[in-house]
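=== RUN LOG ===
request id: a7f3
mode: sequence -> structure
chains: 1
length: 299
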Amino acid sequence: MPNALQGKVAVVTGAGGGIGKGIALLMAQEGAKVVVNDIGSAADGTGGNTTVADRVVQQIREDGGSAVANHDSVATMEGGARIVDAAMSNFGKLDIVVTPAGIIQEALIHEMTEEEWDAVIAVHLKGTFSIVRRAAPIFRQQKSGRIITFTSRRGLQGGAGNANYAAAKAGILGFTRVVARDLGRYGITANCIAPRARTRLAGFDPDGAQNRQFPGSAVSFPDAEDVAPMVCYLATDRASEVNGQVFWVHGGNIELIRQPRPTRSIFKPDFRWTLDELDDVAPRIITGSLVNPAPPQTA
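=== RESULT ===
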């Protein structure tokens, strides 16, 4: 599909580096005009550097594409509105929003501060809402639009030391499924990506050469740019019937995640179980073969 996004206008958050940058570059190569949003913060959300987004815009333009930079934060409704409005004011339309912007602040749950919780939730979950909320009326009026959000394995499966991040990512997953049903009738799709890639949030240094947290494991993490093709595919007209889905994307491996559904069940005709009955039945049918993901440690 050469020039698969020709004539489209896209907003990509967190596009100054990593996964967002790869998406912005590929969308521009495929003919889209792109709003490159990034505040240029550190991985924990501190600081800021406007040149991060500016450099990506320069690269797109040097390659013959069309792009503008935006340096607003997704973490406020005002910032999200200005990001979306940048597409309308510069290019006169909007067809695609992609929301990989994120930060990470790690702590075990008994040590996590309210500030760490709020900061991560604000960028990931509220940041996704702020963009989609502003774009939704535009998409609804034109009866078309593509929304691609980002969850993670932590949001799907959990993991120690990331309660704020996992909660935000799980929230984005539920949010996206609702948006798909809210807006699907208007020709709009909303899908979610769970990526695995060399990024700052995964503990890699900025050039993606080495994993700071898990030395020696870098080979198991594909390049951040490898996420972009699936995102771009979901943004095309060819993917108009793909809606409300979740995909794991890691390198050349793309997996459709099954929607949650019961795997085991017990039933009692008069509705209410007693504790004695559950103590007898549950271990045999429901809970007996389950594996504790974090069993108690023995001295």
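=== NOTES ===
The two ends are 60 Å apart (CA to CA).
Confidence is low (pLDDT under 50) at residues 204-219.
=== END ===
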